[in-house]
Amino acid sequence: DHLDMDLGAITKYSALHAKPNGLILQYGTAGFRTKAEHLDHVMFRMGLLAVLRSKQTKSTIGVMVTASHNPEEDNGVKLVDPLGEMLAPSWEEHATCLANAEEQDMQRVLIDISEKEAVNLQQDAFVVIGRDTRPSSEKLSQSVIDGVTVVGGQFHDYGLLTTPQLHYMVYCRNTGGRYGKATVEGYYQKLSKAFVELTKQASCSGDEYRSLKVDCANGIGALKLKEMEHYFSQGLSVQLFNDGSKGKLNHLCGADFVKSHQKPPQGMEIKSNERCCSFDGDADRIVYYYHDADGHFHLIDGDKIATLISSFLKELLVEIGESLNIGVVQTAYANGSSTRYLEEVMKVPVYCTKTGVKHLHHKAQEFDIGVYFEANGHGTALFSTAVEMKIKQSAEQLEDKKRKAAKMLENIIDLFNQAAGDAISDMLVIEAILALKGLTVQQWDALYTDLPNRQLKVQVADRRVISTTNAERQAVTPPGLQEAINDLVKKYKLSRAFVRPSGTEDVVRVYAEADSQESADHLAHEVSLAVFQLAGGIGERPQPG
Ligand code: G16
């Protein structure tokens, strides 16, 4: 039945999206990412692959053109599976094979994938496409469409969307509208309705809770917040910075910059104790921060967001009187203080997975309520169908106080994007919780004190020489590297360090924490030198500070 694929047409069109000779790319942490000019063939081929995946799952599949936190010159693409989730691991392998196939091998690889995955080629296929604001994204998404149509797939191009909005659309379309309406309007309405309902319940709706400064990383978040703003303005007014009108995407601003440099973005004026937050380039991450009265910068990262959210959810469950299990999922980047606080003070079980939303999301699905956040601000909460049903019943039956709590939980569930981490949705969840609990940003920050930490990047010739185990907390290769790290870590108090190859940038990432900033900085630098020496560093040796 290969006749159902017009192999001749595929070959002909593929030549128009030719692969640069010798270029090898890997489906990484969040799809393919590299310089935009190397990605045309990958886009075309991911269009083809999305059609096969759609036929196999008999569902709508999403394709998002973005490189999220990467610099503006980069771009990327990832596929979104039927329930709005990241692509299944076995298909990531197919994606890598297909992206790297030389022109003459394309047909064979496509047939191989179809056979291995028992794809019924006669099945209809539907693909939805979204893209971020990068200058290269429009043309690249057109190449995806070329791929989709050449194998007879139907498509809907949403144009400019945040990444989590595309995940939401896919989820809506495959659940018969039960999750929501698969339009941007539907997204705005669903979230805003839940948010406004929640904030109505806040007893202290004083002005301090009602305004927020948002750094949009010069990306898509600005456009979408501007569209959405008036839907929720009853509950919150947002002031946008780095809205793309002049600056460069992710440059000296955005969640990744703020988190990794531990300083405020450029282009935003911050008065003391004002609540501020940053999105990343495709609005799937968020971090908060403020300046205290002495002008010191305080970062509130994904770990503290997870803590705020899980403690609020736990309190609601106690009020409702339901004993549902809550779990928190983190990665090795989670600050040691956050893990200790969650486990010892909040008595919530905490799990550590590898970096990458797909790993956290998967683990979080094991709980009635699974809260997952990467320290970099990427995360959400997942609620099992059992929870949703129980809460819906409670909201109708229980005594006043319980009913109120159940209603709140119902709205919180609606406010979370359960398909993916979502800066807009998370922002509204956080703002609602702060308002409901009457918490200032300082009180939230004071839940626990982060251990000082430092993240660095090291350039090496081939980052694949580093392999890791134990949720990326230990290096297996190259030989001697883990021993070197162990020896360095011993020199500092309350210290911890690990290294791993990035799945989105061509670098090795180094993380260190210790009892003082000076120690964390030293340790991170020493570990960087060990990586440089033992893992084939290139360019300039890592410099201190
Ligand atoms: C992506 C992933 C995140 C991951 C980040 C960095 O974020 O979705 O899960 O933490 O890359 O990954 P790595 O350390 O492997 O480079 P984003 O916001 O860029 O899509």
UniProtKB/TrEMBL annotation:
**Residues in Alpha-D-phosphohexomutase C-terminal domain copies:** 480-528
Q: What is its EC number?
A: 5.4.2.3
Q: Could you list this entry's UniProt keywords, alphabetically sorted.
A: Acetylation, Carbohydrate metabolism, Coiled coil, Isomerase, Magnesium, Metal-binding, Phosphoprotein
InterPro entries named in the record: A-D-PHexomutase_a/b/a-I, A-D-PHexomutase_a/b/a-I/II/III, A-D-PHexomutase_C, A-D-PHexomutase_C_sf, A-D-PHexomutase_CS, AMG1_II, AMG1_III, PAGM
- Cofactor binding, per record: Binds 1 Mg(2+) ion per subunit.
- GO MF: magnesium ion binding; phosphoacetylglucosamine mutase activity
Pfam families assigned = AMG1_II, AMG1_III, PGM_PMM_I, PGM_PMM_IV
| Residues annotated as the enzyme's active site | 68 (phosphoserine intermediate)
Q: Which GO terms describe its biological process?
A: carbohydrate metabolic process; hemopoiesis; UDP-N-acetylglucosamine biosynthetic process
Residue ranges of coiled coil: 391-418
Q: Does the keyword Acetylation apply?
A: yes
Superkingdom of this entry's organism? Answer: Eukaryota
Phosphoacetylglucosamine mutase AMG1 domain boundaries = 182-287, 301-438
Please state every residue range assigned to the domain named Alpha-D-phosphohexomutase alpha/beta/alpha: 55-101, 122-171
Q: Which Gene3D superfamilies has this protein been placed in? A: Alpha-D-Glucose-1,6-Bisphosphate, subunit A, domain 3 (3.40.120.10), Alpha-D-phosphohexomutase, C-terminal domain (3.30.310.50)
Annotated residues for binding of substrate: 374-376, 500-504, 509
Per its database record, what is this protein's job?
A: Catalyzes the conversion of GlcNAc-6-P into GlcNAc-1-P during the synthesis of uridine diphosphate/UDP-GlcNAc, a sugar nucleotide critical to multiple glycosylation pathways including protein N- and O-glycosylation.
The Swiss-Prot or TrEMBL record describes its family as follows:
Belongs to the phosphohexose mutase family.
Give the protein name, as stated in the record. Answer: Phosphoacetylglucosamine mutase
Query: Organism source for this protein?
Result: Rhinopithecus bieti (Black snub-nosed monkey)
